[in-house]
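A.,

Following up on our hallway conversation. Structure tokens first:
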């Protein structure tokens, strides 16, 4: 069917509102840091607000972490590492991770609603992606806790000690789970900093950790902004660092870690190519491209933000894409029918707005469907740039918003060259019916993850991470476990 044969409008389909109830969450007025198993006041007494980006309503006051708070957290983590956690056999450690996983499943609605309120992402994503994957990460790594000697045969491995972990605002709970699960399984203790704009689910996780009687000090959560993260990076008591966030901050952390020669993993930005060949299943490819760039409002490090489409089908593909994004429902993130939620913060909205203005001023053609943006909150419509040159800023820099650029190619070689023409190397997508073409492309694409005839699929057993300015080290699978262990000098075994 030609795209214009079946416009959606004549059906007059509309959806009744289907808001998820917020009664399931109980947000405190003020939150302290979670240190040594308890919520404690920040040493400075300072707090900052966290708001719902869809409504701009104030949700809670959050402790602003100082270097002194970080010091308390590191001391608690060190004591736990040298005390109960460090002595505990892997089989016992694993039980704690299983308990965390089960509680995440049991309380998943509460977590999902809170994630959506604090971060603005559609409830269907928090409910169907963030929560199941967070629980899966703990389940998966729990299974390794008593098997480290099998994971690394003929090597004697041991945990580093205290891990400092800094996570961003786009998948707040999920990024915390990706980092905590392998660190704890390996026997480390942790000081974690959630992002300033999305601290609430990490703090709810602290409640889970109390409920399961995790020994005090094994996980410590210090809230705050960039300065709090920098205090963790600079603390001499940290033995291993893991960071997910912007390339710019990642580079600063790499300088600090290399000066002190401590192990580091970095998961940074991306500018993924999403490559569509003329022999692909076109309607499925349109869906894949839409999922690749508009889910979580494009706040996704592996977002397929650069569409490369074979020239022979470019016009009709772009037409179908425009029609499809005209049907996306933007609005209340708590509504179960919402596809595109709120932009995470006023700052991020400004960044996206500026980047799109740059794209227009440099000569690319902007398409945005007609859609009513709510009066309150931070919103940006799904957007597509055509007429894009490789030199355009929007084709080169990470926008981290619902903005797709479209370029064309004539041969697979040209597609590879354009896909790799970026400082990033996190992910890529390919749509074609030819398995041989997929294998050929996969070998040549310089990306840590390549999806074929699908996009944004994650599994805790599968390593995820990048090349070049997308960082180094992997999360997931045994590749994600290894950075939390080092080889013992003595060959006495243990740790498991
Ligand atoms: P940041 O890299 O600043 O934030 C990531 C985390 O690092 C947050 O917890 C942040 O704290 C913390 N942080 C900030 N500065 C420092 C520092 N000097 N030392 C240690 N930790 C620090 O990303 P932004 O939130 O500023 O977003 C900017 C851009 O980064 C986005 O537009 C996007 O392009 C990219 N980005 C990429 C992500 C990815 O997954 N690849 C995730 C997030 C952003 P706090 O938030 O509290 O300031």
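Then the amino acids I'd put at each of the 496 positions:
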């Amino acid at each position: 069917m030609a795209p214009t044969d079946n416009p959606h409008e004549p059906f007059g389909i509309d959806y009744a509102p289907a808001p998820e109830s917020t009664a399931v969450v109980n947000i405190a007025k003020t939150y302290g840091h979670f240190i040594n198993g308890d919520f404690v006041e920040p040493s400075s007494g300072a707090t900052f607000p966290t708001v719902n980006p869809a409504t701009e309503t104030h949700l809670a006051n959050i402790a602003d972490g100082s270097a002194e708070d970080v010091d308390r957290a590191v001391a608690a983590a060190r004591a736990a590492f040298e005390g109960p956690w460090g002595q505990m056999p892997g089989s016992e450690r694993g039980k704690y991770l299983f308990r965390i996983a089960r509680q995440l499943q049991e309380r998943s609605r509460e977590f999902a609603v809170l994630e959506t309120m604090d971060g603005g992402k559609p409830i269907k994503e928090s409910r169907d992606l963030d929560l199941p994957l967070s629980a899966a990460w703990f389940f998966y790594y729990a299974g390794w806790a008593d098997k480290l000697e099998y994971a690394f045969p003929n090597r004697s491995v041991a945990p580093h000690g205290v891990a400092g972990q800094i996570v961003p605002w786009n998948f707040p709970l999920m990024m915390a789970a990706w980092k905590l699960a392998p660190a704890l399984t390996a026997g480390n203790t942790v000081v974690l900093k959630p992002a300033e704009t999305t601290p609430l689910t990490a703090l709810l996780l602290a409640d889970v950790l109390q409920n399961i009687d995790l020994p005090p000090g094994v996980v410590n959560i210090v809230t705050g902004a960039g300065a709090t993260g920098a205090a963790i990076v600079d603390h001499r008591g940290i033995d291993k660092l893991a960071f997910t966030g912007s390339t710019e901050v990642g580079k600063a952390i790499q300088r600090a870690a290399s000066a002190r020669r401590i192990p580091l993993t970095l998961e940074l930005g991306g500018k993924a190519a999403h490559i569509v060949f003329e022999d692909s299943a076109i309607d499925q490819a349109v869906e894949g491209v839409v999922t690749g760039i508009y889910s979580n409002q494009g706040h996704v490090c592996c977002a397929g933000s650069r569409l490369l489409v074979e020239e022979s089908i470019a016009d009709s593909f772009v037409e179908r894409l425009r029609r499809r994004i005209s049907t996306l429902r933007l609005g209340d993130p708590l509504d179960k029918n919402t596809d595109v939620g709120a932009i995470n913060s006023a700052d991020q909205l400004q960044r996206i707005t500026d980047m799109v203005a740059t794209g227009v001023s440099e000569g690319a053609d902007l398409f945005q469907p007609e859609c009513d943006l709510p009066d309150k909150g931070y919103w940006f419509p799904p957007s597509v740039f055509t007429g894009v040159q490789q030199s355009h800023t929007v084709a080169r820099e990470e926008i981290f918003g619902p903005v797709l650029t479209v370029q064309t190619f004539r041969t697979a070689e040209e597609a590879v060259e354009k896909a790799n023409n970026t400082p990033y190397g996190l992910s890529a997508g390919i749509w074609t019916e030819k398995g041989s073409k997929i294998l050929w492309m996969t070998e040549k694409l310089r990306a840590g993850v390549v999806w074929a005839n699908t996009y944004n699929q994650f599994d805790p057993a599968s390593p995820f991470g990048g090349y070049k300015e997308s960082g180094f080290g992997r999360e997931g699978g045994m590749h994600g476990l290894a950075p939390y262990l080092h080889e013992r000098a003595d060959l006495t075994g243990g740790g498991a």
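Residues 166-170, 193, 195-196, 225-226, 229-230, 233, 244-246, 249, 252-253, 268-269, 301, 348, 351, 398, 400 surround NDP (CB under 6 Å). Curious whether your intuition agrees with the design.

B.
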